[in-house]
Structures
1.
Amino acid sequence: MGCDHYRNQIPRALLSDLDPVQQEALDRHLAECVPCSEEKELYAQTFRRMHSVEDLPVPRHFLVHPKERAANPWKLFRGLSPVWQGSIAAVALILLMTSAMAAGRMQFKAEGGAYTISFGKTSQAKALPAPAPALDIAALEARILQMVEEKNRKESLEWIRTLRAEIRRSQKSITREQRNLMQTALDNLEARVDVRLEQTARTLDDRNARSLAAMYQAIKLQRDSDLALVDSKLTRLALNGEIKSSQTDAILETLIQVAENRTK
Amino acid sequence: MLASQRGDAMAFNRLVLRWEKPIYNLSLRMLQDRDEAAESTQEAFCSAYRNIRRFRLDSRFSTWIFRIAVNQCITRLRRRPPGIHLSMDDQGPDSPLKGWSPAQESHEREMLLEEDKRRVRQAMEKLPPDQRAVVELKFYQELTFDDISQVLEAPLSTIKSRFYSGLEMLKLRLGGAE
């Protein structure tokens, strides 16, 4: 296989896209072929440079608004809750019937349990009662639109509040890089604390040793002083002749032992 | 996703917060212009939201949103008049080089790093849009070739061919003494 074959495999090798047999064959070739080895280094440099371009933070959030989905009134209607859908459907039906009544002069009569609906003027000779005043459709429409607008406004405000809370919550979460940095900082801090603890322990040990040595010295001095005092008193007594008993040495020895026990 | 398909905008916006950084940086590297990248990113998410019901739940959202974003970028690149390339190296307000002068900065290593990044951006800008998309998805979004094939809806062999051709061009422009 020629160099062309191996050169085609170099970028795949850098992407770990070769099987072990192919990788081994390539490695053997690169060990012997200087131009191909240089080609691999060029690819490696290219990869390094490509990876030097890091991601930038976003300049702002790219959140969508619920109204984005309302491409047409039918989709807006389908997006409402069933209660609102029923209400709007009922109002639309009433409007339709009212319009039909107004346009076709529909009359509805209930006589002795029977109901009749008729259109146009009746053929009855007697004067008909004056028609009911037409409903103010425009006002009704305005009222319905006002209610829908009020509901949308409330929903928008609620949505904005929730959105802000979500953004605050997402800003509190940290990225993986920040987590790694924090972990590294914590590890360094832990190492410093360990060193400080070791130093403190050594210092304490040194102080303890010095304190014990000083204490021992003080006790030794006190013991020597006590013994000297006892010795001088006994010598005085012996000189004055008050104690001539042969037990003087035994008493002295006993006192010395007592003094020694005190210092232990 | 289910909540988003039922019309829960907040659920969809959670997906936006998760994916906005990779999509924005993909758009930025494809278009090499901050403002256009921001527009393209917003349009991609709005388009995804409008068509959320068409999303099949057995596929991955990442594949889908990458597809929308890449298509947005390629459309914008094809609309650009030939020969006019917008460069991110202009010192806008967010440029890392803004207000920086060699006399103030004594860190030679950082200078070389910025120069490397500039060369990479220029080299990427010269790639055809389809090769640029594959290189971006492979290098920076770390997708497999199979994933890229699904994103771009092209055969695997075509994707690999575009990638290695693009890589060869980048090597010619970027490979050299460090």
2.
Amino acid sequence: MKFLKNSISTIVATLVLLPVLTMANESEFPLDHAPDRSNNMAALQNGAKLFVNYCLNCHSAAAMRYSRLTDLGLTDDQIRNNLLLASDKVGNLMTINLSAKDAKEWFGVAPPDLSVIARAKSSSAGSGADWLYTYLRSYYKDDTRPTGWNNMVFPSVAMPHVLWELQGVRNAKFVEVEDAHGSGKKTTTFSKFETVVPGQLTEVEYDNNVADLVAYLSWMAEPAQNTRKRLGVWVLMWLSVLSFLAWRLNASYWKEVK
Amino acid sequence: MAFVEKKLPADAPAIDKALNWIDSRFPLTKLWNDQWGQYYAPKNFNFWYIFGSLAMFVLVIQIVTGIILVMHYKPDAALAFASVEYIMREVPWGWLVRYMHSTGASAFFIIVYLHMARALMYGSYRKPRELVWLFGFAIFLCLMAEAFFGYLLPWGQMSYWGAQVIVNLFGAIPFIGPDLSLWIRGDYVVSDATLNRFFSFHVIAIPLVLLGLVAAHLIALHEVGSNNPDGIEIKDTLDADGHPVDGIPSNPYYTSHDLFGVTVFLVLFSAVIFFAPEMGGYFLEYNNFLPADSLKTPLHIAPTWYFTPFYSILRATTSDFLYVVQAGIAAYVALVYLKSNLSAITKAAIAAVGLLIIIGMMPAVLEAKFWGVVLFGASVMILAGLPWLDCSPVKSIRYRPDWHKTVLIVFAIAFVILGYLGVQPPSPVFNAVSQVCTVLYFAFFLLMPWWSAKGTFKPVPQRVTFKPH
């Protein structure tokens, strides 16, 4: 019996650990960690500015109302005078005038709505914010593509490098590496980016602005996020007190049970 | 018989008179006393006995949050996704109601699996509680259907493609399959027609059935009385008043006990809702934040986590695995002939069915896809057979040989591994592991008539094990 118990335990332990061996298979571009600026109103406002100026021409955010931007510390007038570029009323949703049919014709695919893009792009490789942050900083010049741009995070993407004036033009350098399994073959891997034409911003400034934009997209994906967490603290405190009281009440009743 | 209303003294409190008026016309006090107030339950309930009342609590949560969601949700393929975002952003507290409903769905399954685990440990499905188990099994089936239909409603990528895959499973049934899938879907592919009918099933059809089954489940339980961790029948030892000596009235003892359980549950439930509603992509899947696109198939289509153990069994059934299954069936038929006390006719019937299956699993007959669906279904249906598969002389794991505990734990681990593998994309190693775990899963049930009766059982006490506290 003891032998059976031991062998079952061994088999089970092996089975449990086997999956770990197959973890390292997908060679995806590693994602950088997007800085958390969810409580930084200045960053979120800058992100909103970048979003409305650069993204809202092709991408819609049809679940997002302009007036919700007051959550970021802006007034209706500020929104109306600075951010209402694609619409006329501050109570409108962030829809665009580019029809899906035209977009498909011009780009090959309609640019997706960005309302919840920061939630949709999450995966085991990183959060949606990480994906977006790395994506917007991984464009490189590629003359084989119709737009002239390609992206390390999203190969053969149909979107051009909208922020190229800010970041500048970069090439991607690839190197031939010996195959790790020693089969004698060579594989092409990415080594680094190389600036061809510098942009208006330095690398740090560009990364900073992209972080703001991504923080805005994260906020837009779930505007109630900060409220949720703030309330959660109070709710949990209250429920802890309640469960303590329920525990002692229950104990007082059960004292009677012999 | 003439209607007789009990007369209370003229100075009796108004509330007593009101209650008397009702009781003369509707058995309110009797119902309360029979079902809860004076329902004598064993006094030695432990942690595992909280999940029944928690399941009922979550059912209420789902219904109430569901009612609120339906006020704002639009069951139209063009409007559904946007209406969910409308609830999240524009409906006051909409985000909270949505998260309560999505977290509640996962919580329901965690609770129900733990509730079933209790039954497995303490033999709660055994005579005379077979019907309690069968009604519970029907509830489990309805719950899975409810979750499946509900998952299409947000109309995200995973909603759409998950529904597409699962409805296509019915297409694997020979002869009637494609027509059956067409009938379920209401269209040649999952579309607006499918969304509308799944909305009806999710909001009305199955909740009605569920409520009826929960009532039946509780009535059946109260008829025979609850089991307990020692697996003994408390009604065997009565006191002078006719109440079980080891029993206590549910009110106030289990009212306060379950209230405490509910508050602890709410702490955990709220922690998830307020701080991790997506739960790493398991409660709210990331891919479902992309609107459904019939032209873009996701890389990995997997059902929600609570279906994955059974989904793993479906995926494990490859044409190679069928040889293993055939060998297993042949060995099982031999075992039944050599080592069982069944009648000759029953043995012959089992042999005939086994032979048909073995023939059906041969390469040229029915393909692995069909048998995968069969095993998928069988892995759920076999639960219903537990009251008749368990041949142990004692109910509770406490008085069984220690190695029975190991068997139960191995089964639980196999179930969890199957669940984990179901979430992962397929790979050769994972496939092999899931095949091993599938064998363990079915062996646990099919060999139970033999292993559950083997070993040295411990003497079962007359009175329950209870420490006053």
